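In this supplementary section we document a worked example of the pipeline. Step one takes a protein sequence of length 191 as its only input; no multiple sequence alignment statistics are reported here. Step two produces a three-dimensional model, which step three serialises into structure tokens for compact storage. The input and output of this example are shown verbatim.
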Amino acid sequence: MTKNIMIVGVGGQGSLLASKLLGHLLLKEGYDVKVSEVHGMSQRGGSVVTYVRFGDKVYSPVIDKGQADFIVSFEKLEAARYLEYLKEGGRIVVNTQQIDPMPVITGAAVYPEDVIARMEQLGVAVDAMDCLSLAEQAGSAKAVNIVLMGRLSKYFAEIPLEKWQTAIEECVPPKFLELNQKAFLLGRDEQ
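The serialised model returned by step three reads:
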């Protein structure tokens, strides 16, 4: 059975490292893995979407609407934007940070209020936390991606913590390893 994870965010937030880490881990676990990056206007703070699909045999890298087991979102409005991709019983893991999209910055639109509460009212399982604060606690605001991966790891009971940590060692430059290991554990252990 194929599992589908969408990683959604804004350009420059580290979603590509997150998908690389996830793909690397799942390959080492013996799954067939397909990772597909869909770039929007990432250099201008636009949406960036990465699909990670894994299972015994995966034929396509693309996730259709209603097929995502998980949506991992770097920003709450991005989570809401891709809600229709979540399958029934799926889960959203989301950073509560607000990053204003261009229409809000220019005054053409207003950032919607209570984005997370609205998703929960629709019956969506939302695991929301302030990943930015945890990343800063680990030593760098840029570690939000690894905090999110730490949180996602809680939902993969079949993959031991040590295997996630090994994947981080193999995907992150040595000089950033300690910081990223700390960010991962903060995300995983946050109450």
